[in-house]
Design goal:
Elements (H helix, E strand, L loop, with lengths): L1 H9 L23 H15 L3 H4 L3 E6 L1 H11 L6 H6 E7 L9 H7 L5 H6 L5
Parallel strand pairs: 1-2
Length: 127
Amino acid sequence: MWLRDMLPGDIRNIRVLIYGYDSVLPNSKSTASIKTFATSFLQSVIDSRYLINEAQRPILSIGHSLGGLVFKEVQFARSALFNNIFRSTYVAVLFGVPNRGLRNEALRLMVDGQPISHLVSDLAPDS
């Protein structure tokens, strides 16, 4: 992944963390939602910053497509538990994010009757 492989050569003292989640649709048994992914993301960041010197490092987040929606959901999760993370977040770069929803008729047909279908419904325009 280019973030992990190239950025450390360009930015001194950088630590690259890559967060992923199961967004496979066909035959998925997942009941996860965007909110579930956001909560898991925040917990992963907390877990990676357990040392004092780690807790003060600046955070730059990059989100693409569904990842951008997950990051935006993180902003709604503000609480005292996450204050250090929000104070440390300097930049968020979001691209390819379906902010106005996604016409996803084909996806809905693909997941019809599966537990993950609510996630696809959440991506529809006006959802």
